[in-house]
Amino acid sequence: MTSVNEVTSGLTGAWRIVKREESARECFDLSADGALRSFTGLVLSVPILFLTAAALWQIAQEELDITFEISFGAFLAVEVASTLIYWALFLLAMLRIARVLGLGANYTAYLITYNWGMLLTSAAFALPLIPYSLGLLPAGGAMLLSLPALGLLGWYRWQIARTVLGVEAGPAAAILIFDLLLSFSIDQLLATLFLTGGGLS
Questions:
Q1: How buried is residue 95: exposed, middle or buried, by Cβ count under 10 Å (0-12/13-18/19+)?
Q2: Left, alpha or beta for 118 (phi > 0: left; psi -120 to 50: alpha)?
Q3: In 10 A of CB 151, how many CB atoms?
Q4: CA atoms of 105 and 178, how far apart (whole Å)
Q5: In this predicted structure, what is the pLDDT of residue 158?
Q6: What is the distance between the alpha carbons of residues 24 and 113, in angstroms, rounded to a whole number?
Q7: 115 Cβ partners below 8 Å, 6+ apart?
Q8: DSSP result, 125-174
Q9: Which of 82, 104, 154, 179: CA 20 to 30 A from 166?
Q10: Residue 164 CB coordination number (10 Å)
Q11: Residue 27 · residue 13 · CB < 8 Å
Q12: By the 8 A CB rule, do 159 and 17 touch?
């Protein structure tokens, strides 16, 4: 069972990776048990995803020129499903990629740091949406303030590819592009299949 201390350490380690601190590695339990417990990062991201989805759904309904109705239940289901499918497919693909590159021994550490980083970046993206949901910030301002979180996500994924998985700059860039395209493609596919009019998840 994951303790509060381990969650705190995981988030601390993820932040230290962002800051490129050598001490980041000390924050993670890199054992097989630590790998299993790192999935807590994904579990804890789900409530944050719920908050994010609620705000984005509200923005879509109130701020965008949508000519069809999107139920919140369907919108939330697509958001959660796309996140889980993307996460599973990406980590499976990365296992294969790590082995092809001869870096299979580094995959467990990569998975652990990826999972805890998912919690960090999800929280960073959700923070500017809270004042919007409370009526304290307009939609445009909230989305503008969320942009740095996207940069944080890209920077974090780049750093763990380079420093944890151990790939060179070229492969790290390819992994980052693959990561973003996979996420976008799954999101759009599920939106097209399950939301009327599609493409607005």
A1: middle
A2: alpha
A3: 10
A4: 21
A5: 96
A6: 10
A7: 10, 38, 39, 40, 41, 42
A8: HHTTHHHHHTTSS-HHHHHHHHHHHHHHHHHHHHHIIIIII---HHHHHH
A9: 82
A10: 24
A11: yes
A12: yes
Gap between the Cα atoms of 165 and 182, Å rounded:
19
Regions of the chain with pLDDT less than 50: 198-201
Which pairs with CB-CB distance under 8 Å and at least 24 residues apart come from 183-188? 183/82, 183/86, 183/90, 186/82, 186/85, 186/86, 186/89, 187/78, 187/82, 187/86
- Yes or no: say if 199 and 192 are a contact pair by the CB < 8 Å rule: yes
Residue 80 tokens read as: 């959660």
Q: Which amino acid is at 190?
A: L
Which one-letter amino acid corresponds to residue 121?
Answer: T
Close Cβ partners of 45 (under 8 Å, ≥ 6 residues apart): 83, 118, 119, 122
Backbone region of residue 168 per phi and psi (left: phi > 0; alpha: psi in -120 to 50; beta: other values): beta
In the prediction, which pLDDT does 169 show? 96
Token duo for residue 13: 């380690």
User: What is the CB neighbour count within 10 angstroms for residue 26?
Assistant: 11
Residue-wise pLDDT for 84-124, tens only, equals 999 999 999 999 999 999 999 999 999 999 999 999 999 99
- Tokens 């940069």 — which residue? 151
